[in-house]
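Working notes for the structural subgroup meeting. M.R. asked for a predicted model of this chain before we commit to crystallization trials. I am recording the input and output together here so anyone reviewing the notebook later can reproduce the run.

Input as submitted:
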Amino acid sequence: MLRQAADHLDWLVLGDSTLILDTGTTEPMVICDDRLEQVAAPHRTRLDSLRGGTPEHAEARREYVETLGTYRNRDGGFWVASTDPLAADQALAGTVPTEQVHAAAVLTDGAADAVNRYRLITWWQLLDVLTQDGPAALIRRVREAERSDPHGERWPRSKTHDDATAVNVMVHE
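Returned structure, recorded in token form:
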């Protein structure tokens, strides 16, 4: 989430979302809540070793999702507001002066996969795509990568397509 006040932006990141702030420096400020990924990594071995679309992969995914459920909204786990509004207290939050931010983007993990998983583009390039071509162009690139690897052999993942949402905001020019 991003909220603009008179002279500053307040941000809040929770769950599998990413916030990118173009502050005009060499690299954009990228804020993501990676607690889910940290918790999930040790439990992905079997899932990632199996070809997507197979009964074995489906069973491993079911077990993986069930296991992750035991870490949801718990200390030492990860937090999502969809199941517990009090999880917002566990969000990453901060404030930045509005004058320092030229643009901002808020992404779900599926849209951030253009950089994080598929390495199709850099964060700067992602901001450029959003500014020049819009969120649909970014999501189209992600979907093309997913379609090029439908069984997760190049890029192991729990499902063929993840939710992909992107919002781009020009803050200060």
